[in-house]
Amino acid sequence: MTTLYKLISEKELLELGGTLFKKFVPGLPLTFDVNIQQDNHLKDPGMFLIQCEIEEHEISGFKTLNTGELRVETDKVPLFNTLIVDKIKILDFFGNTEDLTEESLEVLEKEERFFKTRLDIFLETNNRTMIPYDYLDQSDCTDSTEKEIEQSIKEIAEEQKIFARIAKEKTSNINTVEEAAYFLIHEDLDEKQIRQIKNKSIVTQFKRGYDHFGLGMYLRNLFIYPNENKIFLDHLKNYDAHYVIDRGEHGEGIIADLVWRILNDRQTTAENQKEIIENQKAAAKLWEEFYNKKNTENLSPDAQYNLMDEFVTLIKEGSLKKTPSRDSRLLSYNFEDKIMDQYLELDTKKQADKEHYMEYVYRQKVILAELSENELLIYDQLWKDYSTLENLVSKIEQKL
Predict the structure, then answer these.
(1) Do residues 210 and 123 lie in contact, with contact meaning Cβ atoms separated by under 8 Å?
(2) What is the pLDDT of residues 199-224, one digit of tens each?
(3) Which of 21, 133, 159, 317 has its CA 20 to 30 A from that of 233?
(4) Whole-model pTM?
């Protein structure tokens, strides 16, 4: 693979943005450096440095100048565009950022959002999905008239009535969370839905609200809103068979978590479950001691939340006697001690080094995702793509 570099103006940046950074606008020849020239910004202030990649064997189809630069004549620009691997990437800006327009910043922010989404989805899928360059612009939305919207609302309302009746019939004899999970896996969810759940990496299980409007909404509609089975609702309310990071709005997260664990063979071992229960008892005792030392009369809900936040922060900082060192979250997914130590070490670094906080967050996601050596190389490039844009946007925002 050959990497090519080029300085472009703000106008050219906006033109590239219009192509989703997939191709150069035809009409003028292109000249590329094959190496980054560190003094380019001294010769051409107010320019963006970009890069693109093409296969090495394709270079021979274009002219190499005496200076070592690559020249793409006007008539060959369309051909060159077809050879660009992935997309054109923005590396830096040289000059006075105060001269840039808000429109340029919006283009850069969109690219930052794209690379963050690409990084997240790569880590959150077991098949390491790599989203295409136009992912953020793909939309099924179409313009609808007021009459069409009104008709659509009526159809949705009717579908919900039918679903509620069917849901009541389906769930009336389900009394436990385990029965609900078994029903979903063996009777309710189709093959596509099963594949989607299996493809969710463990990273998703550590995200709060990840599936609130997807599977979470489906489970609320199926098991909670129409359900009059008090036995099941009480079992769900008191369920504590394993550690659940996000219990959801009404407990639906507990069901979703168990389904994911069964399909991905991550059910908590009996030994780890026993240790988690001991951890919870120790944490409850520590919280009680902390709470009793505070003036807690007539605390508002916000004050209660702030007190809990203070408690968690003091534990992380080591100001309070800690609960057992083996983390319940990680224990519940049966991680080995070495992996848990690496993860918790990054927790400490997040507290001590705020400047690199997000880097540590993503390194924790890498640990959870259990990437192979080849996948780690891909991750390194994805992180570089995202962090480069994030740093550039921050630099420009500070000056605008």
Answers:
(1) no
(2) 999 999 988 777 777 888 888 888 88
(3) 159
(4) 0.83
